[in-house]
Specification:
alpha/beta; 10-stranded mixed β-sheet; two-stranded antiparallel ribbon; globular
Length: 502
């Protein structure tokens, strides 16, 4: 099962397209806290040459990697530990400000594999910062979780309908969800109850300490914005210069997130259709009709006898909506599908699902599900999802049914309970935090930026708006956005709250 909600950031999605086609106390300042250990000068990390990871070759000589040991359970700081994989490139200039820690989203995205490919986007920031990222706990090289085999994943893609229409399809849908959870439990063991966003926020403060920084300078994208908000809540006095781009709405619960993304992806699809000269309402109806035909009879493809199912087709439509530059690929794929060839939409879906040409799948979606189901307490039932479907389908005839069912299917019969309805991100006393919203963002709709700023608190959240398209704003072609972010991170110049870049 593929989940659209809280997927990785624009940079990760674009890379895939190219390749494939709260719990915890409030008011914690991090000082005299046995859970966080003692500050040191960074010598605890044994930095060395990086190895190849995630199917990508090892990065060049500018990059160093290390493993940091942290408690498995932060309530037992002297107990069992796990290893976190870190990567860094040192600042190129003499006037060094410290380290800038990046999280690229997911949850489940690998910072170790993503950071080198993102370095060109943030080259100006590297002049004064060491660029640092990591694989959060339960992700990739940091005790990454794999819940099922490649063969099992492909079998589920061909047999599980993400928008079940019959009792039999519904039964298969929920049996598959329960089976996935059992696989995660078997693979993760004790770790499964300790991969929450709160756990990772505490890991971030340990990273800050071993890097030798008094305060955390941080750049979070997509899910990384939620992680940044939770860190700010736990350690408000340790917030340095923090930028949150493509903001997850912290006030939305499970159903709220699904509705937000249904609106967001439909808005992006409408804007795409307008760019092709088509009426958005009529174009959406035509795409919905195409998906219904594929649901009844999957399309043949050129990929080793695999067929394009409705769920894979929908996934293939989603990926190019993350970036306006990918819209032509969507046009080509939809045209081919209308002509009876599902190959191009399948290639897009494989990019989203992190499937390579040899049929091997990455573990991003495994980690994403383990983390988000530990975070989220709500468990909507099948009956509740059915009741929601008319509202979701009214919002979007293309994405509504999938995301409506997903509210119940994603964490169905999950082996461990969730921790909260919504994350706590209030951060009274924190330094100003720059919150960037993109009015055309499909995955994290613009409204989430204002809500994040409001929940961070007065004089903390500062909103910068970009009237653009795609997931994320920084590095997406707006000199206005890039200049404002660089001035904030490099010089400490906080833009006026409500500044708009068009």
């Amino acid at each position: 099962m593929t989940r659209i909600t809280r997927w990785a950031a624009l940079t990760a999605a674009a890379a895939l397209l190219t390749a494939g086609c709260s719990g915890g106390p409030s008011g914690d300042d991090g000082e005299n806290d046995g859970r966080s250990g003692n500050k040191n000068d960074g010598t605890a990390l044994d930095w060395g040459r990086c190895k190849a990871s995630g199917g990508a070759p090892a990065p060049g000589g500018d990059w160093q990697c290390a493993t940091l040991r942290v408690p498995l359970d932060w309530s037992e700081p002297d107990g069992a530990t796990i290893g976190l994989a870190l990567i860094r490139a040192k600042a190129t200039g003499d006037d060094r400000l410290g380290s800038l820690l990046f999280n690229f989203g997911g949850p489940g995205g690998s910072g170790v594999s993503m950071m080198p490919s993102y370095a060109g986007t943030v080259a100006e920031l590297r002049e004064r910062y060491d660029l640092v990222s990591w694989d959060p706990r339960g992700v990739a090289a940091s005790e990454g979780v794999r819940c099922r085999s490649d063969r099992e994943i492909q079998a589920a893609e061909s047999s599980v309908d993400g928008t079940p229409d019959t009792p039999a399809e519904e039964r298969t849908y929920f049996e598959d969800a329960a089976d996935f959870g059992k696989g995660c439990r078997k693979a993760a063991g004790k770790l499964m109850a300790h991969v929450s966003t709160t756990d990772t926020a505490r890991d971030m403060d340990r990273i800050r300490q071993v890097l030798g920084d008094d305060r955390l300078n941080y750049f979070g994208i997509s899910y990384g914005t939620e992680l940044g908000g939770v860190y700010a809540h736990l350690f408000p006095k340790k917030v340095g210069r923090m930028t949150l781009d493509a903001v997850v709405d912290p006030s939305a619960d499970t159903v709220g997130h699904a509705k937000n993304q249904t609106r967001g992806f439909q808005l992006a699809l409408d804007n795409y259709l307008k760019s092709t000269g088509r009426d958005p309402e009529q174009g959406s109806r035509e795409i919905a009709d195409l998906l219904e035909r594929i649901d009844a009879e999957p399309l043949p493809t050129s990929s080793s006898g695999r067929k394009l199912t409705q769920t894979l087709a929908l996934t293939g439509i989603v990926l190019p909506l993350y970036s306006q530059a990918s819209w032509p690929a969507l046009t080509s794929a939809l045209r081919a599908a209308e002509e009876g060839d599902g190959s191009k939409l399948l290639a897009l879906a494989d990019g989203y699902n992190d499937r390579d040409a040899s049929g091997r799948y990455g573990t991003t979606t495994h980690s994403q599900r383990v983390i988000s189901c530990l975070d989220d307490k709500q468990r909507p039932t099948a009956a509740q999802a059915r009741k929601l479907l008319p509202e979701f389908e009214e919002i979007s005839p293309v994405f509504g049914a999938f995301l409506g069912w997903d509210t119940a299917g994603w964490c169905h019969d999950w082996p461990v309970p969730g921790q909260h309805d919504t994350p706590e991100v209030s951060a009274p006393g924190a330094a100003p935090i720059l919150v960037i919203g993109n009015t055309g963002d499909p995955a994290t709709p613009y409204e989430g930026a204002r809500r994040m700023a409001d929940e961070l608190g007065e004089d903390v959240g500062v909103v910068l708006t970009w009237k653009g398209e795609g997931h994320g704003a920084y590095g997406s072609g707006s000199d206005c956005v890039d200049s404002a972010v660089n001035a904030y991170l490099l010089d400490g110049t906080v833009p006026e709250d409500g500044k708009v870049c068009s």
